Amino acid sequence: MVVVEVVGVVMMEEEEEEEEEEEEEEEEEEEEEEEEEEEEEEEDDTSWIPSLYAGMMFAVGLPCSFLQRRFGIRPLAISGSIFLTGGLLSSAFVTSLFQLYITYGLVAGTGAGMLLFSGTCAINLYFNKRRQLACYLATSGLSVGSIFYPILLNILIDKYGWRGTFVCVSGIASHTVAAAMLLKDKRGPEKSVIVKLCEQVKASKTYLEISVPEKDELPNEKNCKDIFNVSTIAYPTKGLELDDYLKQGIFLESDTKSGTIFHDPGKFSQQYIKFQNGYLNDLSKSKDELLTLKKKEQNIPQRSWLSDTRAVFSNVRYLIFTCGETYVVMLVYFIPFLYLPNLATSLGYSDSTAALLITVAGISSLATRILNAVVSHKTKINIPLLNGIGLITGGAFTIACTFLHKELHLFLYAAYLGIFSAITSTIQSLVVRDIVGVELFSLAWGYTALTSGIMAIVGPPLAGRIADISGGYSVTFQYAGGMFILAGFSSVIISVIKTCRRKTVSIN
């Protein structure tokens, strides 16, 4: 009996020990789950930092368009350099994640956006024939940065820590002040008004209306030093330049008579008309008619922000571009770049392999930009069509990479990801300028950048939520690929509309 009792006691002690071990294991599992949840929450919180930076870099486009129209490109770029440098430097002294949201996400992101907007406007305003070449060469620095910047950051973090890294990076960013001083506005607002009026005038049937004094005071042909020949009757005056004639009082309307215009450099610098059959006999001699020029000058419409905005959004192609491409593309544009390393590690590849994928994408992007610069310089390219093809093929490759899990396939996708980014990121500003023209480009690009920024802020956290719900990154990449394809078709529609309008104009 004693043995039985001893055995029973031992068994009870073993059961108690097993229960204690199970309780300890459960507590450890709960602690691990809590730690994982905390890590996920921290990852969600930190993911907002690059999202805010990227979003602000685009979202400030609309305010920048007003500042550029008011102060010019150079002051805007210098201000952006100061914001960027100050934001990065102040990030080295933060004590909380919320402060980093402000210093890096908002302040530094705003500065980067001001610089990006200034550079984009400068290229599209300065260059006409070689605009594509200039855009590809100017943005090639993005590819160089994606190759070497991660390596530099790792070295700086290992040596100085993350605070010292922010100080070093702010020093690098301060060099943009010198670069910003090299920018200047090529076209002032007054000349832009004249050019716009000239374009409107040349598209209409015109005649010359000139107020002159009495017939007896008209000088003869011998006394006139400057002679202008007019031989157009009821068709556009392609030979007239509005810059030369607007101040002299020649206004173009809807009927034409032939003759010779004599310019007498006299006291009032007026123009007179002599026709082949003699001087005009039907000109009014009243003083009211002599005030025609002054009244017409006062009635010239002035450009305003509201009228320009109305002109931008009344453009069907711009609406298609904004709704079908800007909203869609920027919602998912950063997903492949942010989550490709995560996709590789989830498939069992090492962290070094995952990091190498981004380097391959950067090298491919640099090579594509240089190649496109050479090709666009020598051939005429349909910009919206090229953009559409790039988006459609990029979406197809993004979906395909979720079914091809070999290491070679991932590297091939990374290489094409560089090609895709080189085409689409550079060509967006070219598409906008092609749609609205140079006069409305600054305002139109501001609206485009604003919508892009909003989507860039929302997009990455939304993609992360999709990955959490689906339990992997395959669905996230398929979602991004589908959106790219949808946006590509909208760009093709823009190209078709442009081609049809050209054919209609040529027929007429």
TrEMBL record:
Residues 12-46 have a biased composition (Acidic residues). Keywords: Membrane, Transmembrane, Transmembrane helix. It is a multi-pass membrane protein. Its main location: membrane. One of its GO terms (molecular function) is monocarboxylic acid transmembrane transporter activity. Pfam families: MFS_1 (PF07690). The keyword Transmembrane applies. It is found in: Membrane. It comes from the Eukaryota. PANTHER family: MFS DOMAIN-CONTAINING PROTEIN, MONOCARBOXYLATE TRANSPORTER. This is Major facilitator superfamily (MFS) profile domain-containing protein. It comes from Pinctada imbricata (Atlantic pearl-oyster). The lineage of its organism: Eukaryota, Metazoa, Spiralia, Lophotrochozoa, Mollusca.
